[in-house]
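> tool_call: predict_assembly(chains=three)
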Amino acid sequence: MGRAPCCDKNGIKKGPWTPEEDHKLMTYIQLHGPSNWRTLPKNAGLQRCGKSCRLRWTNYLRPDIKRGRFSFEEEETIIQLHSIMGNKWSAIAARLPGRTDNEIKNYWNTHIRKRLLRNGIDPVTHAPRLDLLDLSSILGSALCSPPLFNLSSLLGTQAILNPEMLRLATTLSSLKQENQEIFLQHLQDNQLLSSLVQNEVSLSQANQFQNPVQEPTSSPFLCPTQLMQTDVEGLSCQNSLQNLVPSSWNDCLVSKAPNFVSCNTNPTVPDKLAENSGFQPINNSCQNYSIESVLSTPLSSPAPLNSSSTFVNSSSTEDERESYCSSLFKFEIPEILDMNDFL
DNA sequence: AAACGCCGCAACCGCCGAGGT
DNA sequence: AACCTCGGCGGTTGCGGCGTT
């Protein structure tokens, strides 16, 4: 257990702040500055704990706090930063002048998160949800690299994953390791899926080929996810693929299944699903998005972080925002896959 | 008009890391 | 090294407002 709460003493008031308390706190801080929070309430004549005073000041009374509705740019920035940082609200708030971490956190949980969920986007991974998306995510991982294609992790997600999809993914992974070239050829010929379904290749048969620890470590090929994990200097996913992945992989990963392109620019988000899926939304951030451009923004800069946005109307409606969110995370089902059997 | 449920947000709680002793 | 204090963070709670029935 941690140490005892600082507010459990008798005489320490909790709950909503009154205008009188606010006035006392503001007056004291204006005179003395926010120095020692523990002694501040006593000196200011407040029946509050220092922690409560600090929160009240930082989240509400601070003069530089911006009130009111979040603008489109702010919302867009939050989404982008969240895709990079995860729930690091203070870090996100540091790049949104006038906004507090608490405010951003609340806004995320009450607005953005729900909107992403409505649009089929996992608000944690910023990827299409596994229970809604197609098989391409799994196939993409299977094609990429066995070390990243961790079936045991996938099995942990079976509650949300169609068992048939999981089974097929396992089979594909095994076959791929058995003979990568034949596998790719089959896939490129759009024959593998129907072949598998028709012949009902059993999981046990497939597993005899599976050997996840013997994959050559000196493979000259990098999975797109790996590319992006190391490609954090602002290079586009597309370029990375074209430059580093053999053309046959490009054909398979990009041309036939465009959303195989991995844009995982988030090395800090420990999301197994995202890693395993290798599936990220196709959006501006994939093609042009530079982490540097966001992270290098001065903390005090009031300028929007994504100047490329054409959505500058801060009074836009919820529907417009939702529509924008949808387009931001738009994805398509590859033509080579008939998902009807899996949904 | 009243009851009910939902939603948003301010505030609280528990935990952690840094720094001091 | 061990302990304590403090500031800070992220997750959660609970209340008030609002819309719906």
